[in-house]
Amino acid sequence: MNMFKALARRDQVFDFMTPEVSPVDVRHGPILYLEDVSVSFDGFQAINKLNLTIDDGELRCIIGPNGAGKTTMMDTITGKTRPDSGQVWFGSRHNLLRMSEPEIATLGIGRKFQKPTVFEALTVIENLELAMAADKRVLPSLTARLSSEQRDRIHEVVRLIGLKPAAHGLAGILSHGQKQWLEIGMLLMQRPRLLLVDEPVAGMTEQEMELTADLLTRLAGKGRQSVVVVEHDMGFVRSIARQVTVLHQGSVLAEGTMDQVSSDPRVVEVYLGEESGAEVA
Ligand SMILES: Nc1ncnc2c1ncn2[C@@H]1O[C@H](COP(=O)(O)OP(=O)(O)OP(=O)(O)O)[C@@H](O)[C@H]1O
Fold it and tell me: By CB distance 3.0 to 4.6 Å, which of 116, 139, 143, 241 could disulfide with 61?
């Protein structure tokens, strides 16, 4: 490799200047950047030269048939699974392939799994306090007393997730949908820049789905969060989606608005056709 090429490598240039913990830098590009990412399990190619770019503040839906690689993609972003090759960047400074799972979470990538895992014996507020305490940067101050700023943040999040009336009740008596919102709220306590949300509306009532759509669209935006949603429910995807990415056999099959991808014959064939796993509303 010649000298210029070696200096221009994105994973090496200016490394000595990168502070330990720095805000994600999105001035010159996307918040999340995957290039030619491949993941195999015992020779089976789950992700195959995947390219994906998420802009700051974007709300992106990822759809695709069972086994398309959606979960593996999320696992790769959060550091749970290491790819065989490719690049994964958070903003222009953070090479995620060099970071551990906890480091990536601390950097501002929050992941919401399908099943809610809230502390049922604690109140909604206590769950949010605990989530704040999980953030090592604020733990020392929390063990003393909550600052007014921390208290304000908790109340801001309670309102945002629509749980103000239930704030002092036990999380165990919340509905399934409310537990999902509480868990999103717990992620928000750590002020993530990117939220990865896995099948948020599975098992929800129609009304809960509408409120979830409203919540996710309010969370996304420049200066707030970028949100990546994996979902099989096409009615829900249609209600929130601006940009949709269709994965198939570990690669991007199509990308565009919901209308564009749902009229793409290749997408209809592999996913939206009658035999597919998609729940078409
Ligand atoms: N740890 C693993 N070991 C072996 N194979 C795996 C492993 N994890 C995933 N796979 C395989 O990789 C492929 C992609 O799986 P993945 O779970 O990422 O797909 P998905 O798009 O999330 O599917 P679904 O919609 O069903 O959740 C599947 O064929 C799966 O069986």
Answer: 241
